[in-house]
Design brief:
The protein is about 80% helix and about 0% strand. The chain is mainly alpha-helical. Helix 2 runs parallel beside helix 7 and helix 2 runs parallel beside helix 9.
Length: about 240
């Protein structure tokens, strides 16, 4: 690795495809689980009719999964459009106001402790290559990273499928045991899976797995119990 790359950190980003996929699985699974848990427990509090609970749970499951997949797809498209617009703006500014943009590049490298002749040489070199110039401005002036659409559809489908799987966690017990028993089992399943998702999420970052798992579990359980409490208000017997 060159001295310039070491000093500035301008190196090709190390790809972590597995971590990226896991983060999308956690996103979809957590959202689907918490939302459907609230719906199912709310229905269970309002009625003892298993068919109504399962029908409501399945409706929420598929509505949630489609919504999550659509949001995952459109949000990345929006990020991509924004990034492209900012690239076009930076290119225009480089061509229309080269001295001002050059001064900004110089300020960035000076902030990395470049000085004297080395600073002048680096700025001169970057100024001769528009693509590199734009890359540096995007990453270090605007704090934006490139957005790829290569796996856009597959990632959206992964989020949607994960939402379905997560949604089934609190719903499955209602297929096999009476409502009064299924509520308790569903809560336990929900708590365990949320804790596991939080712990895995922390391992993908720099958080504490136990603390992250507990936080996600408590937040998710609070949302689920809120649904249960609302269901009690409309209890039909």
């Amino acid at each position: 690795m060159s001295q310039l790359a070491e000093s500035t950190g301008i190196v090709e980003a190390e790809t972590r495809p597995l971590a990226s996929k896991l983060s999308k699985i956690i996103l979809g699974g957590q959202d689907g689980l918490v939302n459907v848990a609230g719906v199912v427990l709310g229905l269970a509090a309002a009625t003892s009719d298993t068919r109504i609970i399962i029908a409501g749970g399945l409706a929420a499951t598929f509505a949630e999964s489609i919504s999550m997949a659509a949001v995952a797809y459109t949000s990345v498209l929006a990020d991509l459009d924004f990034y492209r617009a900012e690239v076009a703006r930076e290119k225009a500014e480089i061509r229309e106001m080269p001295e001002l943009e050059r001064a900004e590049i110089e300020a960035i490298f000076r902030g990395w402790a470049f000085e004297g002749q080395l600073l002048e040489d680096v700025v001169e070199h970057v100024s001769r290559h528009e693509a590199h110039w734009v890359d540096i401005m995007m990453a270090h002036e605007l704090q934006l990273q490139p957005v790829s659409r290569e796996s856009l559809l597959s990632d959206a489908l992964l989020v949607g499928f994960s939402a379905i799987v997560g949604s089934l966690v609190p719903l499955v017990p209602f297929f096999f045991v009476p409502v009064s028993v299924a509520v308790g089992i569903g809560l336990v399943f929900t708590a365990v899976v949320l804790f596991a998702l939080g712990a895995v999420k922390a391992r993908l970052t720099i958080g504490n797995p136990s603390r992250s798992g507990l936080q996600m579990m408590l937040i998710g359980m609070l949302a689920a119990l809120a649904g249960y409490a609302i269901g009690l208000l409309f209890e039909a017997g």
